[in-house]
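Quick one:
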Amino acid sequence: MTSLLAPTPGWTARGDVVIVGSGVAGLTAALHARRTGRTVLLVTKGRVEEGSTRWAQGGIAAALADDDTPEEHLHDTLVAGAGLCDVDAVAALVNEGPDCVRSLIDLGAHFDLDSSGAIALTREGGHHRDRIAHAGGDATGAEISRALVAAVALDPGIELIEGALVLIDPHTGEVRSMAGGYDYTQSQFNRVTQSLRQPGSSFKPVIYLAAIDKFHYTPSTIMIDTARTFKVGDTFWTPANFDEQFLGPITLRTALEKSRNLVSADIVSRIGVDPAIQYARTLGIRSPLGRNLSLSLGSSEVTPLEMTRAYGVFAARGVLFDSVFITKITDRFGKVLYDYEAEKASKGQQVITEDSAFVMANLMKGVVDHGTGYRVKELGRPVAGKTGTSNDQMDTWFIGYTPSWVCGVWVGFDQKKQIGPKETGGVVAAPIWLYFMRDFLAHQEESARGAAEAEARREAQALGIKYQPPDLAEQRDFIIPDGVDLFWVDKASGRRSSDGAPGAIQEYFLKGTEPESAALSGEEDGYELSEGTYVEAPDL
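Output:
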């Protein structure tokens, strides 16, 4: 393992040389480095061609050297200050001092090999030395990336993007993992528990739950996704969809999968704001919520912990647990003073029916399978969730859950500003969720496999029989409760259909709400919605 000391405040914004690895963290560091005027030396393990390919695939080539081919990287980009070298070749370059290295030296960089065989970079005057990588080994891109971010943080003109992630066992409330920010040494502010941010569309499942659980909406209810203005007293509100397009009559399922703002706003305009707030409280959201129609689009600020815990109710079949950070306390003699294990069975509250929780889970699986959360589908197991993006792309979210775990991710700037014009929850937060959960679940399965195999060996030895590898259970899906019925429906119209019919899908309904001949919601209320009409909102 190599280490890289964090740069000192004496480092300047220009003229510094940053050496990075060819992994994701290293390439990210390279991109930041070039944006801040630093010279980049990319160190790869193996042949230069392999490193060049990884570099190009990482999308960094354009940022470091426009139009260069892999063959040109070693000469043109290194002379220009963005180098690509095999780690052994770096040692040779240091000793031989060719023109490309002299170019870096002219920028104020000094390379040599220290007594441990590591490639070292020293600043002018030799007062500061950073170990970069052992000859013949990998550069540790994650460490280098963190050091670079620390250096950039010294420049008051550059604000770093932040993030938060929390993993909860929804069946106990135990917080199993939490990252409150990028680097604790740079900021001790815990964005999981302390940061109030607009959840955007990740709040919509709360609205949909209220509609389904209390107001007899179903996944096949037809809603009108069209431009409209809502009148509240003497004021008017005209929301828009993110893509500035309208899909016309669509089912509630499609509206959630495609995250249609006009549908969510329409639901709250019909059922009222108070029931929406009531269901948010039911799911454990305690932050103040604005009593206005924009609540339907996630305008009220909440913490990532609150939102993730709320989604946990869907995963836990309608049961809410308070978040638990400490599970056991012992004194210095080992005496147990507190043990959550002994009382957790009594801590859960059934706040919604398991039937409604399952219908919501089935709806939100569609967000991953066919909607804005499609990037998470790569996980290859049952996942339900919802993306979220606030106004002007200042907050991006993805909160997702399996039958056993719920995880929430938020990304944004501490000082609210746009991340980028196309940076949505599905683009920014969902991949983070995917990479984290993929590694976490793989670790969980490996641990379970090891425990099962050990138990099988013990059993075989005790019985004097031949050891047989255990059959591990398949990845389980969300449990289907007795209070729902399954029907074939037409995905577009929401009307009942049959197996094999074009456009037919299987859909779950709460008992008593099965589809008949579906009517448009505008028809049910005695009017048809058209572009430009406005809807009178209920009293707020």
